[in-house]
Amino acid sequence: MSDGPDIIANIATGALVARAVEPLHGEYAADGHTHEAACLNCATPLIGSHCHSCGQHAHVHRTLAAFFHDLVHGVFHFEGKTWRTLPLLAWNPGKLTREYIDGRRASYVSPIALFLFGVFLMFAVVTQFSREFEPGNIVKVNGTSVNEGLPIQTKRLAALKAERTQLVRGKHPTEAIDGQIAGQEEALRVMQGVKNARFDQLNAHSNVGAIDRALKGLKTNPGLVLYKLQNNAYKYSWALIPISVPFVWLLFPFNRRFHIYDHTVFVTYSLCFMTLLVVILTLAIAVGKPLIVPAAMLIPPWHMYRHLRGTYGLSWRSALWRATALLAIAVTAMLLFTMLILAQTGA
After folding, report:
1. Using CA atoms, how far apart are residues 327 and 329, in angstroms rounded to an integer?
2. Scanning 52, 170, 267, 313, which has its CA 20 to 30 A from the CA of 345?
3. In terms of pTM, does the model score above 0.90?
């Protein structure tokens, strides 16, 4: 629950430390801006708003407000490019990918930068709200989660037992209430089993020693293994790109119009959208919004279809069958990625 804020805090701390050890150069006026004729970074004479040699801003600022602006900008990449990129990524991903491949990039966030930010945000949000995905919170009985319903059903059982005691004292028949008590006790056992769901009954095996060690660890010490899995999934998330690209190439075998680079940009922007979709769905689950499952099932194939058609200029029939194949590719890539993470965890 606290890993998300810890990650943000660590990044912010790193930024502050980096700024603290940065040497001071040049003179600056009361407005906090330096006014120099040469670049403070490489000493190249300045002829515009940016150094034409290293690209640094011609004038740097040294005010506290400007410092925190830089911090927020560095951590969250808040700038105009983001707000031009995200709407296209959501509604017209083919145009975004085609623009980037064709070299019109100044207005958009690069796919790898957006991917890294999306992965960071996804893991931070999912970790923060991970309790929402515990079995006791996911499984619902009569519209109420198991964790919420357990105290209610426990009180109901106690009330039934108290009622039975009164019937016994009054020498009244108890067959009916005995049946209710038995049913209530069975329901509580089931709910308690869901709440305490663990990996004790996990009997999966593979022919890879590292994966088998990770699976064994899930039975003996699931908390530690899940922590390692999360860290490795975050660390190796980039591997989804090289895993997926060859499969996408198979959708256009030996087609001279499209190259590996095109497929790499396509895959990376597609993964960007999926990571941000996970963030949105996680937040929606956390606040109890309905229709999450239909959204999770319908949005990805719809986005894949539009992305393929726009990027590669396909007809609707051609885009449709490739989108269907891309769904299978996505599942295959996730399985291979999961095997990689399990192997790294058990290594």
Report:
1. 5
2. 267
3. no
